[in-house]
Amino acid sequence: MTARSETYDESLAKAHEHVRRWLSSIDDRPIGPRVTAGELLASVGGPLPDGGLDPAGVVDELAAKADPGLMAIASGRFFGWVMGGTLPAGLAADWLVSGWDQNAGMRYSTPATAALEEAAASWLLELLRLPPTADVGFVTGATMANFTCLAAARHAALATAGWDVERDGLTGAPQVHVLVGAERHDTIDLALRYLGLGQPSPVAADEEGRIRVDALAEALAAIPDGAPIVLCLQAGNVHSGAFDPFAEAVRLAHARGAWVHVDGAFGLWAAATPALSHLVEGLAVADSWTTDAHKTLNVPYDCGLAIVADSASMRAAMGVHASYLVPDETGPGDPYEKVPELSRRARGVPVWAVLRSLGRRGVVDLVDGLTTNARAIAAGLAEIDGVEVLNDVVYTQICVSFGSDERTREVTARLIADGTTWMSGSRWHDRDVLRISVSNWSTDAEDVRLSVDAVRAAVSA
Hints:
Blueprint: H1 6-25, H2 37-44, H3 55-66, H4 88-100, H5 111-127, E1 135-139, H6 142-160, H7 165-168, E2 177-181, H8 186-194, E3 201-203, H9 213-221, E4 229-234, H10 246-255, E5 259-263, E6 288-292, E7 304-308, H11 311-318, H12 348-382, E8 388-389, E9 397-401, H13 405-418, E10 424-428, E11 431-437, H14 445-460
Parallel strand pairs: 2-3, 2-4, 4-5, 5-6
Antiparallel strand pairs: 1-7, 6-7, 8-9, 9-11, 10-11
Helix pairs in contact: 1-3, 4-12, 5-12, 6-8, 6-11, 9-10, 12-14, 13-14
């Protein structure tokens, strides 16, 4: 009789072989995909075959057909969006998570994954210098992290006004006044839409995208006394990498009884390193924070972090109870009480593995290294005739222009077609830009040199 484990052997061996081949190809292959989704669909789609294929054959076919449509996001020369690579410990741990196949929602039934996530959460709070009593939920990414934190904010803001939103919904509820910086990330608006809070009120930002304290004071003064208020700040502007002036903004908002949420999808990690701690001064006294582990920390997709200082508000907004969900009476509550999902994979396990692999010093070196590489790229680009660096490079983001919008789009298209590096086009301050996000742990001085040279070639072509 064949042992159950043996039925996986050949397909897992094939997967291991193909992943190793993929990883070994990243340094030499073009960064961008070589086919479109429509072209690939012709190969992988069509009517479902009547007969099946053995698992190892499926893995072989999958790897071969997908290969030309893969983006080399793990490359040290991928700067297209804020996407980290995958550190070795994180990748291996993610394989274990798939193999273990645990539903990480309940502490009683899956204690191993619950304990690992709780340990990882404690390490994260320590690294990011956030309150040690805060609750941490592991979600898909910054969108759902913002959703989770702002659900807690909605609960608390309306509860202060005497309204039970979980019981009574939003019909007839007092208006929640949501203030945001004019250059917040769109996922803030998306989360507010999901929560039924509508469009927020934008507050003017400065030339780097930081919320202006004087404009915030005026916006707060215009809101009636006693009205529920939520203020959304950001750690890391998606174009400039700039950080809001947290100390003064949080003080003003808290004086009005507002809940302050910080969207730190990639920038919250600045708190982990002494060299950048000045960027986040005052951030720790906010009420909630979001970040992505699959960005700056370089764990596999998908892993966002929703962090809320007031555990009761988080669990009131997210929690659910049913007789078949056996609670763990010995611990701090179940993981599913802190996130939108009852069922999910153990996203926090790769976080534990990466933090255990790096240690505190390794995380500091990782974040400092990303910033150092960003400054090196910006310095190299500034030496090229016709290139203008548009932002103050304080973190990992760079925006450049090549003159006119048409010229910028033209150079960007040439750069992507070349394949040496991947930097994406965007629009900032009413002009087309090339946006560069330095997020990968493996980027080194040679990657920086090759990428700058690729831009130089695209400019002079």
